[in-house]
Amino acid sequence: GLLALILLLVLDNQYSTALVQNGFIQGDLGEYNAYLNKGGAFVRDVIFLTDQNEIAEAQASLAESDEKVDYYLEQFEAKLESAEERAILNDIKENYPKYIELRDKAINEGLNGSNDAALEIFRKDADPYLVQVMQDSDDLIAMNIQMGDAKSDSLSTLTIVMMLIIIAVIAVAAVIVVVAILLGVNAAIPKNYTVGDIYVENRKISEKA
User: Fold this and answer.
1) What are phi and psi of 27, to 5 degrees?
2) Distance between CA atoms of 69 and 46, rounded to whole angstroms?
3) Segment holding 91, helix H or strand E
4) CB 18 within 8 A of CB 151
5) What are φ and ψ of residue 49, in 5° steps?
6) How far is the CA of 41 from the CAs of 33, 36, 62, 74, 130, in angstroms?
7) For the chain (length 209 residues), average pLDDT per consecutive 10?
8) Residue from 61, 92, 66, 77 nearest 28 by CA
9) Cys bridge to 35: 25, 68, 202, 206, which one at CB 3.0-4.6 A?
10) Is residue 80 classed as helix, strand or coil in its secondary structure?
């Protein structure tokens, strides 16, 4: 019983770790990509809208989107473990500031009335960095799905092994109990007794009853 409890606790810990490392991180990365995409749409609004109130709303939405991007970056960064994941993260950290710099340049051009120039800067200069960052994020999602599947297969195998161990331990314990009982019965029978003697004794006990 104690062994089974320990093994179940080990499995529970393994499943919890797999869920946090490869499950929750996919959600963080999905949100990260979503807000990157929303940010790009808000940039176009700021560039092309003419109503000042609408422009202010688009700028506020863009600022909120930027905050969410930074937040989810922190969330999934804390869960990355492998060297491959860290390499992709470094690529994101290198390209995202370049995107922001060129994006803000495009926005300034748009606010100054140079919409064509703003769109040119955003499409040709800024957007390629955004596309690369989103691709890196997608790569991290794919990588974590693969690692999650691998861990799931490993845990399934571990579960089977643990169950076999538990069954083996129970079987061994049962054999030990049976052997102990047999040894105890054997010790209680005098050595000079034969099967016939035992039969006679049983008959006497039955007659007295």
Assistant:
1) -65, -45
2) 19
3) helix 83-111
4) yes
5) -70, 150
6) 13, 9, 9, 23, 12
7) 59 60 79 94 92 94 96 91 91 97 95 92 95 94 74 61 71 78 63 53 59
8) 77
9) 68
10) coil
